[in-house]
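for the writeup, i need someone to sanity check this before i put it in the appendix. the sequnce is what the collaborator sent (i think, or maybe the updated version? ugh). structure was predicted straight from it, no edits. if anything looks off just tell me and ill rerun, i have time this weekend
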Amino acid sequence: MAELTEAVASSTAHGVKRARRAMAYVRERVESPRETVLRLILVFAGLPEPVPNLRIGDRDDFIARPDLVYVSYRVVVEYDGQHHWATEGQREYDIARREALEAAGWRVIVVTRTGMRQPQDLVWRVYRALRERGYDGPPPSFPWFDPR
């Protein structure tokens, strides 16, 4: 992260101004572009920022490392791409992991490619889960969303 920040700060390349603005939204531990898009949809709608890929459980009792974690509210948001549905082994692993998270008191929200096409709906799903868990912040807003 430090190297990337330095490279963008010292660059004079075409497009560097846009890259500098984007640096405000770069996070460590992100493992896919879709995770980033999902996180930014939530943040740009005014929800608190989730922590990417946070390990849940301790060294002896590892449960999972979900895509996006709202620690204070015990809510996780997972993006399930095609590979999560493509093989039976992956699907079974995902089901067992989600059941373990739920047994440990976490609320799990799963977002698919289809769900990403309805950003307002997915934001409201996350907002409702956060509210059920004690979040008292403002409802989401969508100034960036133009349905035309």
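The mean pLDDT is 86. The beta strands are 51-52, 56-57, 62-64, 68-70, 75-80, 107-112.
thx in advance!!
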